[in-house]
Amino acid sequence: MNITEEKLNKGIEEIKERGLVYQQTDDVRKSEITFYMGVDLTAESLHIGHLVPLKIVDILSKHGNKPIILLGEGTTMIGDPSMRNNERPMLEKSSIKRNMEFIKNQIKKISPNAIYVNNLDWISKTNFIDFLRDVASKFSVNQMVNLETFKNRLNNNLPLSFLEFSYPLLQSFDFLELYKKYDCELQIGGSDQWGNIINGVNLLKKSGAKSAYGITTPLLLRGGKKMGKTTSNPIWLDKNLTSCFDFWQFWRSIPDSDVESYMLKFTDLKKDQILEKIRNNINEAKKHLADCVTCWVHGKEISEEVRNKAEKIFEQGSEDAYLDLVCDFDGNNVSENGELLLYNLLFKKGLAKSLSDAKRKISDKSVKINGKVEMDYKYEINPEQDSILEIGKKLKFKLKFN
Fold first, then answer.
1. What are the structural domain ranges in the chain?
2. Where in the numbering of this chain does the RNA-binding S4 domain appear (predicted)?
């Protein structure tokens, strides 16, 4: 069957061009489609890793596709075993419900036009015998034990409860219910959900659906490392867990190597516009990224407020307080010993307008490390030691290392 350009889904094409697609089952052969994104409720806030699928929701909606946000109250009671070596702690039902309300309000600010559903509404009303006959009968245990998570557990003699083993069936059941109620034919999830999504696609097809699709998103990496709630320093969307200032500063401080990828994913600029911004001034490009994401999550007023505050602190030295400064490692800012070079650090964090300006500040005795003036612009900061960086009389930073 030949697919004309008009029949290809423009939203799907855009998310692929922006690097938001990691895997997909098939090309979506409809100009418009109803799709859903499921949300786990094990925490009281989403983190920045969730912004990748939420950006897909944003883009697909813009192209006329219909979004559903599934709040997994029912499945969170079971606990998703994907990519885990042990069983998740079982949460109290009241905690799950509280998390759901927080997260629902959070997402509504980002995706206000989506349909919101709670899978407990159908899971709690499902007859167990009917579930086994209508859903479980369509799953092969032989295939399920070959799912990466289960295979790893069994090969390493790690515990695997029947509760966890049932999770892919329930997630697939969600997909089937949404297909029946909303004609939903596309599921979106993180890369760790590929096995669960494939099972859902197969269940729909075995249940009579003419078409069903799945898409997974890439992990959000910073300098090659995973970002999420399991990392040592997660960036939350809730301003009470991660301040709006720290949120903006996170995006402003990403490594140079991530700028193009992040701007493709999280701004509306086209690739040639992004490359031009980076060529002109990479630090201004980072500010544009920080503005876009902070505005999207927290609103324009807050975005402008925190940018003004950051510029006063970093560029005008108007604050007299210690701030955390996150430092990353890449091939352009480390020495042969793997330690950070001082002048590169000043430039890349926006504390100097250029490498020459950074060298000037150092030679002018304006820079101190741990209270001592440092005049060697190639001074190597050891990430194994706590360090205080001071620039002039007002800029003071505690260096943190990723």
1. 5-221, 225-401
2. 344-384
**How far apart are the two ends of the chain, measured CA to CA in Å?**
50
Cα distance between residue 353 and residue 367, in whole Å: 15
DSSP secondary structure letter of residue 338: S
Q: What is the DSSP letter of 21?
A: -
**Distance of alpha carbon 306 from its chain centroid, rounded?**
21
| Position 292 pLDDT exceeds 50 | yes
Residue 150 DSSP label: H
Range in 102-106, 188-192, 256-260, 379-383 with the lowest mean pLDDT: 379-383
How far apart, in whole angstroms, are the C-alpha atoms of residue 376 and residue 393? 19
SS3 3: coil
Task: Write the CA distances from 22 to 120, 217, 399, integer angstroms.
Answer: 29, 5, 34
Which residue has 């034990």 as its token pair?
145
Give the orientation angle of helix 10-17 with respect to helix 51-62, to 10 degrees.
140
Strand pairing report for 213-217 and 184-190: parallel
* Region of residue 293 (left: phi > 0; alpha: psi -120 to 50; beta: else): alpha
Q: Under CATH, which number does the domain 225-401 receive?
A: 1.10.240.10
Using CA atoms, how far apart are residues 54 and 67, in angstroms rounded to an integer? 10
Long-range contacts of 266-269 (CB under 8 A, 24+ apart): 266/51, 266/55, 266/292, 266/293, 266/296, 267/292, 268/292
**Over the stretch 27-61, which tens digit does the pLDDT of each residue have?**
888 889 999 999 999 999 999 999 999 999 999 99
Predicted confidence (pLDDT) per residue in 204-230, tens digit? 999 999 999 999 999 888 766 666 554
- Which residue, 154, 155, 202, 145, is CA-closest to 179? 202
CATH annotation of 5-221: 3.40.50.620
3-state secondary structure of 387: coil
Q: Provide the residue count of the chain.
A: 402
- Count of Cβ atoms closer than 10 Å to residue 5 Cβ: 7
Alpha carbon distance 289, 280 (integer Å): 15
